[in-house]
Amino acid sequence: MKDIVIGLKKKIRPYIPVIVFCIVLVVIVIIPLKIISYGFLPGDDAMRHSAKVVSGKGWDQILVMRDVSVPDNHPGWHMILGLVHAFTGWGTDRLVVFSIVFLFILFSLIPIFFLKRPEAWLAVLLAFTVSNITLVWRLFLGRPYIITMSMLLIFCFSWRKLSNKDPRVFCVILAMMAVVSTYVHGSWYLFALPVIALFIARQWRAGIVATVSIGCGILIGALLTGNAYPFLKQNIMHMRLALGSHTLKRMLVGEFQPFSGDPMTVAVVFAMLAWRSLRGAWNRKVFDNPVFILMVLGWVLGFSVRRFWYDWGMPALVVWMALEFQDVFGKISGFFSWKRIALTLAIGGALYLAITNDANGIWTQNITKEYLSADDIDQGEWLPEPGGVIYSDDMTIFYDTFYKNPNAPWRYILGFEAAIMPEEDLAIFRNIQWNHGAYQAFEPWVKKMDPGDRLILKRSFALEPNIPGLEWHYAASDIWIGRPYPNKERKKAMSFG
To answer: Sorting pLDDT into bands at 50, 70 and 90, what band is 149?
Structure first.
């Protein structure tokens, strides 16, 4: 019997790397499936992208926008969702599920094809889940920025190929990555960051080659939109409007606000550097390379806008950490060692439990949420009339209501970005923010509302909003709908003098 076991081990031994790879693959796939089994629903852009595809409308038919705004900033992503919708007939719910699962798996699979020891990738995800779950959380938001993050992973693992004597193959790959990211996500100008990191690392030839390749890819991606120059110009304009149309930082959406330095992650980086030094494996190249420099760039810029850290610094960091873990694992066990299977199972099991345990209701917080729906008899008569406008100071009203009513015949004054509102309305909205949602600040909107318009407020108390000129209805949990009185002008005159 002992001889049979020994013989079986010898036969299986050459397949250990394949077994480890398969374990990692299974863990990566079952994690998002478990998350969506809770009924998890991201609370922002994944909802509006899916609803837009189902509606078949342009943004100018969905939002009240200023004249300088260009309709679509993510044409490639809407094309992908549109193809899925056309092929499957899925509605908003299943399109969001597709977005979550597809994008998480895309990002999580890329490293295991570059690492000799893919279990190192599971170790990185586990380390982030325990120390700072922000990265893992953002991977489940089902938004197209994850495509750009995925392209960045490929760059971070492969940048050395740019210095090859004949880098043409990777140049084509890099250009294709820029095409995909530009067409799907839009923020093409941020590809300057990895190029800058190459030059700071004194990788002159690689930097020049990357600049040309990425530049060509951006141009091709813009051409795919059918309106290249306006598309590229709009991306810059959108960024300037989004970051420059406010007085206080708190007026920006959360991900455009500065961060506090993420001290826990910084501590992890220093701990790993100290660990390398203690085991006698110190090498200047550990930090003197484009990947580490890109991580530092993203971290420093995060003090201005945290998304520099989330979307560019963190992906570089996870690649750097994966290579560090791979180096350690290589010294712990041989490439064909049975220890690799045990280690992978242990890390994979811990990662699965750590991510899917729904601590503090992280994956189930939306299950009890109530939505506004035109199909609801009680709510329907209080929602806007055809051609009407929903006024609100809370973006979640747009996300939730558009998601549940993609074909509704009304528009929203506040959508996914305040800066694209008409200037007059943006000024009113900023004043509402300045005054922390004081009811008096809504007066200009109430005065301009037509009979078919509605003011919808999210307030976590049961008292009717004290905003004259409107009659109010408590439509859903924490949601009040205000509509103009039949004789609106007379009521306004009485209320506002």
So the answer is: very high
CA angle 397-399-404, nearest 5°? 95
Question: Which residue's structure tokens are 């060692």?
Answer: 337
Q: What is the pLDDT of residue 46?
A: 95
Q: Encoding tokens for residue 360?
A: 């503090």
- Residue 258 makes CB contacts below 8 A (sequence gap 6+) with 249, 302, 303, 304, 305, 306
- Of the two residues 240 and 174, the one the predictor is more confident about is 174
Distance between CA atoms of 160 and 206, rounded to whole angstroms?
A: 8
Give the orientation angle of helix 168-184 with respect to helix 75-88, to 10 degrees: 80
CB–CB of 27/118 below 8 Å? no
Reported residue count of the chain is 497
CA-closest candidate to residue 262, choices 296, 288, 291, 294: 296
Residue 485 amino acid letter: Y
3-state secondary structure at position 455: strand
Q: How far apart are CA 183 and CA 219, in angstroms?
A: 10
Phi-psi region of 266 (alpha: psi -120 to 50; beta: other; left: phi over 0): alpha
DSSP secondary structure code for residue 393 in this structure: S
Strands 454-458 and 411-412: unpaired
| Lookup: tokens for 301 | 């810029």
42 Cβ partners below 8 Å, 6+ apart? 96, 100, 140, 141, 142, 143
Nearest to 235 by CA among 185, 193, 195: 185
pTM of the model: 0.92
Per-residue confidence at 314, pLDDT binned at 50, 70, 90?
very high
**Gap between the Cα atoms of 212 and 216, Å rounded:** 6
Structure tokens at 211: 């600049």
Cα separation, 124 vs 107, whole angstroms: 13
Kindly give the residue spans of alpha helices, DSSP state H, lying in 38-167.
Answer: 45-55, 59-62, 75-88, 92-109, 119-131, 134-138, 145-158
User: Would you say 151 and 214 are in contact if contact means Cβ atoms under 8 Å apart?
Assistant: no
